[in-house]
Amino acid sequence: MAYPIFDRSQLQLRPLAERVHDFTRSEMLNPGDALPALHSAALDAFVERVLAAHRRGKPLILMHGGHVVKQGLGRLVIDLMERGIVQHVAMNGSGPIHEYELALIGATTENVARYITEGQFGLWQETGRLNDVAAEAARTGMGLGEAFGRFIAESGLPYSADSILAAGWRLRVPVTVHVGIGQDIIHEHPNCDGGCVWRCFLHRFSGVYAKPCAAAGWGAAGGQLACDGAGGIS
């Protein structure tokens, strides 16, 4: 039975200049800033394990979602990459969205309650440019993280220095993007090709991400995995 297909070309995309943002780069934390005491024995123990592994020359893979970016922690992650402590970053599909918007306009995080009510959530012109980057990456055999990183780093964006993806491209530190098809706002855009997105992800997952994980030997004598859920490392 044939089912009717929604015509995505009928969606009305608006410019980011018309959007209300809940976060701007002026709120980003810098290395050396005084941070609140968290009083977490588990976090303190984890930090010691990371430092011990780093002293032994073992790798650290940082896995996180978009909250690390939209809560202003990007510069701290970049500092860890530059110091050689974080040797691989794996982020979900919302990470590049917030990274690109911050690099482009210095703001991100739309007002969800407002724009869902208006039927406008996620429908922003500039953000959809990432779909074109993914399509080109699929044609050239690049992964999403590498392609997005190069795009942000080399497009003359005013705030690209704050981008984890761009730092990965600059430092040659792998940054992989782990997408769930249909889970990110740009997947509803008319120019999204799910086949391209999935091909880029799967190729880099099996090579750049999974292979080092299998070879590292995780644990007290091996490397460390740092996983972020809703904005805090655990």
Describe the model.
- There is one protein chain.
- 43% of the residues lie in helices and 11% in strands.
- The chain is of the alpha/beta class.
- The strands form two sheets. Strands 5-3-2-6 form a four-stranded parallel beta sheet, with helices on both faces. It has a two-stranded antiparallel ribbon with strand order 1-4.
- It has one domain.
- The protein has helices spanning 41-55, 67-70, 74-82, 94-105, 112-118, 129-140, 144-154, 164-171, 194-216; strands at 21-24, 60-64, 88-92, 107-110, 175-178, 224-227.
The strand line-up of the biggest sheet is: 5-3-2-6
Question: What is the averaged pLDDT score?
Answer: 89
Structure annotation, total helices: 9
List SSEs in N-to-C order.
EHEHHEHEHHHHEHE
Main beta sheet strand tally, sense and closure: 4 strands, parallel
Give the domain tally: 1
Structural class category: alpha/beta
Indicate the radius of gyration in whole angstroms. 18 Å
Ranges where pLDDT stays below 50 over 5 or more residues in a row are 230-234
Quick one: overall form?
A: globular
Secondary structure: helix percent = 40-55%
Distance between the termini: 47 Å
Tell me the total number of β-strands: 6
Strand proportion: 5-15%
Task: Report a brief summary of the structure.
It is built from nine helices and six strands; from the N terminus they run βαβααβαβααααβαβ.
